UniProtKB/TrEMBL annotation:
GO terms for molecular function: methyltransferase activity. It comes from Flavobacterium psychrotolerans. SUPFAM superfamilies: S-adenosyl-L-methionine-dependent methyltransferases. InterPro entries: PG_1098_Fer, SAM-dependent_MTases_sf, Thump-like. It comes from the Bacteria. Pfam families: PG_1098_Fer, Thump_like. Residues 322-392 form the THUMP-like domain. This is SAM-dependent methyltransferase. GO terms for biological process: methylation.
Amino acid sequence: MNFTLLNPEIQEFINANIEKNISTLALQKNPFPEVNWVEILNQILAKRKAKDKLPTWFQTKDIIYPSKISVEQTSSEKTAQYKSTMVSGDRLIDLTGGFGVDDYYFSKALKSITHCEIDADLSETAQHNFEKLKVQNVTCIQGDSTAILKKLNQKFNWIYIDPSRRNETKGKVFMLKDCLPNVPELLEFYFNYTENILIKTAPILDITAGLSELKNVKNIHIVALDNEVKELLWELSKGYSGVLSVKTVNIIKEESVSKFEFVLDKNPETATFSLPKKYLFEPNSAIMKSGGFDNVSTFFKLEKLHRHSHLYTSDKPMDFPGRVFKIENCILYTKLEMKRVLENQKANLSTRNFPDSVESIRKKWKIKDGGNQYCFFTTDLNDIKIVLICTKINKP
C-alpha cells in the first residue's frame, strides 16, 4: 500500500477532482511527481465509484482504495448490512476478506472478526481503513486462508467465504469448484472449525448447479438491490439435512425491503392459470432468479397467464413483491390490432414468453420509449400471443 497517497495535498486533489473527466485528467502533468500518476487517478476513479455504493468509506477521511474493479466487485453497504443480520455469536472468520466491506458490518453483529486476505497490499489497505473507520474488533491476517485456519486452530461461530473465479475465460460457465478457494473440496475441512458457513456467490451461479456441489444447505438468500440481483448467499449448517428455504430479498432505495420465501420442495405446489383479469403482477428480479413461480401463485392466490410467462393476474390489487399494473386493454398480437392501438405510440415495453424482442417490436411498430403506458407482450394459457396494455399502480 502506498501511504504517500495520504499526503494532505494529494487527498485534497483527489477530492477536488472526483467529478472530473478522467481521460482529461490523465493528459495533464502530474502535480505530484513523487507519486505514480496512475495510482492517483485510480484513487479518483475508485472513490467516485464508492460515492453511492460505499457512502461510509466515501465520507471518511484518509481512506485508501484498491483498484476501481475491486470496488465494483465488493459488496455494497446495503447488501453487507443485510448479511450482518444473518450471523450471530462471538467469532467470525472471513476467508476472503478483500476490501473489508462485509467485515465492517459483521463487526457490528459479532464480538470478534478475523479478516484473511492473501494479497498483501489489500490486507494492509483493509487494516488501515478499519483504523480510519474506528473499527476495533477486526484482526487482519495476510496469507492463505487454509493455512491460517490450521494455524489458529480454533472454533468460530461462522466462516464466511466469497470465492473468486480462477478462470474468466470460461464465460458463463460458473461452478464453485472453479473458484478460489475451492469450497466444495474444502467443506469437510471447514466444518472442523465451525458449525455454520455463509458463502457469497455471484448471481450468475445457477441454483441447481450450486446445490449439486454443496451439502448441508439450510437457506439460500437471493439478494437484489433496486430490483437487480447482486448476490446469492448460501447458508450451510454442519450435519443439516432438513428442508431448504429460499429467501428472496429486494432492497429498495428508500431503505424498504421486499421479502418472499418458500421451501424448495421435491413435490412443489402447483400454480393455477387464467386469462388476463383486471390486474397484472410482475415478480421482482430476486423472485425471478429463485424459480419459485408456482409458490408465488399459491401463496398470493394469483393465477398465472401461462406456464412459462411468469406473469400473474387477479381481479383485485394487493401488496406484492414486484410491480403491479391495472390492465386497461388486452389485444391480440396481430397486424390489424397493432396498427389500430399501438403503432407510432409511446410506451414502456416488456416481453415475457414471447418470440420477438423489445427492440424488434419497437422498430417494427415505431413505438417510442417512455410515457405512462406499459405494454406486456406475452402468451396466454391458450398459447395465443397477446399484448396487455397497462398503467402502473404506485405503492403507497
